[in-house]
Amino acid sequence: MLSRNELKYIQSLCQKKQREAERLFLAEGVKLVEELLHSEFSVRHIYALDSWQEQQSTVPVTRITEAELQKISNLQTPNQVLAIVAQPDPGPLPALEGQLSLVLDGIQDPGNLGTIIRIADWFGITQIIASTDTVEWFNPKVVQATMGSIIRVKSWYLDLPDFLQQVSVPVWGALLAGENVYTTAPISEGLLVIGNESKGIRAPILPLIQHPVTIPRKGQAESLNAGVATGILLSHLAR
Amino acid sequence: MLSRNELKYIQSLCQKKQREAERLFLAEGVKLVEELLHSEFSVRHIYALDSWQEQQSTVPVTRITEAELQKISNLQTPNQVLAIVAQPDPGPLPALEGQLSLVLDGIQDPGNLGTIIRIADWFGITQIIASTDTVEWFNPKVVQATMGSIIRVKSWYLDLPDFLQQVSVPVWGALLAGENVYTTAPISEGLLVIGNESKGIRAPILPLIQHPVTIPRKGQAESLNAGVATGILLSHLAR
């Protein structure tokens, strides 16, 4: 049974402002919630149908009805369980040496960000540095689109021009004109910058790209979706 | 000014049943509608704000208000113009020799289908054969997600097992286990089968795949989005 205050509180966490103030986020569905319970993330409270089998004992569980789940869910088809989870502290800026990290310049679409996090996880990339205007990491649509990869990939939201001016590792960037990615050697250390969906990599960042790379086009589409482009580039550069 | 009957009629075209009965679809936005007007597609009627500049003379244009556009638009942010367009007749089954075509086994998400059409267009693939249960080609979300590529890529919805049993070109398929796509030679002729988002390529199709190919995984994500996987595979196989 969900109290009126609980309902209001969970619904308030659908707003970015409230998520940031409380340092919490919402995660839904049997698979994701169980992965979170077995991770280092701190799950604070679970709201679940009776059909959801409790696999743990430390997190408080409130049993709710399907109608109540419908009210608090962000999914079209709610899936048994919703968790309130603490946003982990990303800690200080990570070491960039000896690995490939992704840099996102203003990705706006939550589905695209979620897809990019999932792709990073597929290719073993665990660090993403995002411009401060990139869509919020813990937006419910981002969280769900990562299909659990949000557990394994960490984010730092930074002033990008400032950050890129200070790094000592090489900087690649996805551009419509650049070196053919099919003949570019895999990257063992550095950053790959992915641009905004419609504007690409923005003007203040461009001079900081040392190695522009591009995906050759054989047909007539003007561009590729940001997530698809990230996947293609990493399949060539992060083998 | 939009009459009550026109409003009802356009809204009815948001339903698949009605689109198929009328052999029509809806397309929105300045760029897409102008591309359609300059293509072989038959645009039947245009509904536009006064701000939309008419570039043609043969298609009837009804001027409408922003409030009216809001009522007929499928977009979150309507963009000046909506067109009613005839669904082109795909004609007989295409020749498969001498080129790479895509085959979709039950893609369900309109955004994924639209993204795959856009990727096909980027790599110069103009033919897609889809299972009869693949999401409808002219679903408004598919049309918008193609970013204009729907003009250049043709579709045939067929009984896939039946179709694949009869083809004489080689058949590749995207699977979690198969030949490493990084070391597979580019394909000059044949079919590449992409499976359903959660089930992958389904059981009746599996025996008809002669060349399973896979994208090696370095990290921990369980799978890749169907569109992203299509993009990665084509970047290696359709260079």
Structure in words:
The structure is a homodimer of 239-residue chains. By secondary structure, chain A is α/β, with parallel strands linked by helices. Chain A has two domains: 83 residues, 2-Layer Sandwich (60s Ribosomal Protein L30, Chain: A), CATH 3.30.1330.30; 138 residues, SPOUT methyltransferase, trefoil knot domain (Alpha/beta knot, 3-Layer(aba) Sandwich), CATH 3.40.1280. Chain A contains eight helices and ten strands. In chain A, strands 7-6-5-9-8-10 form a six-stranded parallel sheet. Chain A is elongated, with a radius of gyration of 20 Å. The interface between A and B is large, with 38 and 38 residues.
| Rg for CA atoms of chain A | 20 Å
The helix fraction of chain A, in percent, is 25-40%
Provide the succession of SSEs of chain A.
HHEHEEHEEHEHEHEEEH
* Structural domains of chain A: how many: 2
Instruction: Give unreliable regions of chain A as ranges.
Output: none
Strand order of the largest sheet of chain A: 7-6-5-9-8-10
The shape of chain A, in one word, is elongated
CATH superfamily of the largest domain in chain A, by name, is: SPOUT methyltransferase, trefoil knot domain
Secondary structure class of chain A reads alpha/beta
